[in-house]
Amino acid sequence: MEHVDYYNILGIPATAKYEAIKQAYYALSRQVHPDSAVKDKQSQVTNLPAFHQLSVAWEVLGDHARRREYDRLWNARQNRTRGVVQDEVDLDDMEFDPKSGKFSYPCRCSGMYSIAEDDLDAGREIAPCTDCSLKIHVLYEVMDCSDSDQNDSHIKS
Fold first, then answer.
1. Could you give the CA distance from residue 32 to residue 52 in angstroms, rounded to a whole number?
2. How far apart are the C-alpha atoms of 74 and 5, rounded to whole Å?
3. What is the pTM of this model?
């Protein structure tokens, strides 16, 4: 089931207070309410879905208990989407595979966290697990090319 962003529908931040939610709902409902549309049947029909979505957003966010449950579910969904940063791991503790150009580290699920050297060069520091939603933050220092006489890599391992 798709999770609808009611805050976006009302055009308010998730931190909005009750009065701001109410004000946004009433302002938007005056714009899209089918009865306030031009006395054109087509406008009334096209505004109906928008007004229904707006009404549902108000029913959820306008009620303290429903909003709290909605926020809890929304945050849980966002955490699943983003994954949870499990730990911080120093690049020195990761294994490097020169063939693939990737660093890896074992995950508690028996999978492997993996990040490419190119990703590190680009400033990306989050390595996802190949088998679960966990991620690690990779700690490393970017070296200046003039400081490195060992190879072309900008990563200090």
1. 9
2. 8
3. 0.50
